[in-house]
Amino acid sequence: MRGLPLLMLAMIFTASAEDWPEWRGKGRRGVWNETGVLEKFADTGLRVEWRVPIKSGFSGPAVSGGRIYVTDFTESSHLKGRERVLCLNEKTGKILWTREWDAAYIGLMETFASGPRATPTVDGERLYVVGTKGMLLCLSASSGEILWKKDYVKEYGAEIPTWGSTSAPLVDGNRLICLVGGARNAKVVAFDKMTGKEIWRALDSNSEPGYCQPVIVEKAENAGARQLIIWHPLAVTSLDPETGSVYWEQPFKIEAGLAVATPVWSGPRLLVSSFYNGSMMMSMSMAMTSGAQKLRAEMLWRGKSHSEIDTDGLHALVSTPVIVGDYIYGICSYGQLRCLNARTGERVWESLALTQEKARWASGFLVRHGDHFFINSDRGDLIIAALSPDGYREISRTKLIQPTSNPGNRREMQAVNWSHPAYANRHIVARNDAEIIRASLEAN
Questions:
Q1: How many domains does the chain have?
Q2: Do the beta carbons of residue 166 and residue 211 sit within 8 Å?
Q3: Which of 373, 380, 321 is nearest to 356 (CA)?
């Protein structure tokens, strides 16, 4: 009996740890729920437990079952080379296996032709990765064996957009839902996650697919069914994830195909935000139509500006905003951290204290942890901050990783880090174009 309290404490400690198996963590919500995490960084900085050399890429790491998965690219000749997925031991950084395939980045924006974009998705003993030119692989998570694969271009006639395929596969039940951008109504395709057999396809590819991640909205307030949200350059579309049939669609034409930031939702509210066209907020609900209850969405408000410079609300690019209660927090087109009223879209405040530079595409990734946020800026910093209607309050800041990617414009540091880290088991896992690191965020 004397050992029971210690056993219970050990069980509680273990239960509070969690993996990061996909883009923005489990459920793609950008929320980190672990306990036992530090509240302020040490003056000496982060304790990096290991560093492993890798090649170039924008894709973030995924962490599951004691393993870390990340993709990269090695150029052998101009815009041609090999893409690769690496599996590393989470605690030691030892490379357990790798898998490579040919890739040619011809036709992409050369400034940013530096590796895979899509974060790997882990589902138990299966791993799903997408290369920059639309190669989808299902691999054994433990061995790297290819179980099945699809080529979006060869098999679906997809036209890869300017900045490549960026959308990470989404596991939903027995389905693997992918933004393919294929011909013959195959903008979105659901595959059997075990065999690769097509289950359904949806949406006309009358525009490029964009760069957004598909998300599942669980049964929201006043909306009585699960919805697959696809934000593409012509509209925000809600699909039945089991059949691919359309529940509702809200037109929202996006310039340059820049549907990038992940849609976010809180209760019945659903928000999307784009670089040129600003933000749009919708309200999801059930309504009686022809004697039957059907899902619908109505636009609550949208921004008035169509300029990246003269912005009224929030014009996000790679930084996905967050909704907390009746307020939105996000990084605008030139690095301005902004707070908006979620009910009206009106700006409450803005600050450059987070990004420290008013520059095109200045950014950071916001991850909620309790009542504050962990944010990695594209300057390579890791910040703990509190966000409220009263303003931005920085709690602590430290160096995370060296920026190495070409920013495509003039920047103070001459390089950026545009990779979303993973927060798992009281650690952060981050990468640039030269290395992947694991650093402790555990409270002392």
A1: 1
A2: yes
A3: 380
Does residue 424 lie within any of the structural domains? yes
Contacts of 144 (CB under 8 A, 6+ apart): 85, 87, 97, 98, 99
The verdict on residue 176 lying in a domain is no
Structure token digits, residue 145: 């064996």
Q: Enter the tokens of residue 106.
A: 């011809």
- Domain of 384, in residue numbers: 29-55+319-417+419-444
Does some domain include residue 429? yes
Whether the per-residue pLDDT at 443 is higher than 80: the answer is: yes
Cα–Cα nearest to 381, from 401, 366, 367, 361: 401
What tokens were used for 359? 């520059």
**Residue 437 burial by Cβ neighbours in a 10 Å radius (0-12, 13-18, 19+):** buried
Alpha carbon 237 to its chain centroid, in Å, reads 18
Torsion 180-297-241-218 (CA) sign = positive
Residue 400 inside a domain? The answer is yes
Taking 90 as the threshold, does the pLDDT of residue 97 lie above it? yes
At 175-188, the pLDDT tens digits run 999 999 999 999 99
Strand, coil or helix: 198: strand
Strand partners, 337: 331, 351
Tokens for 384, please give them.
């703990």
* Token code pair at residue 351: 């600050």
- Tens of pLDDT, residue by residue over 246-283, are 999 999 999 999 999 999 999 999 999 999 999 999 99
444: domain CATH number is 2.40.10.480
Q: Which of 341, 331, 443, 429 is nearest to 89 (CA)?
A: 429
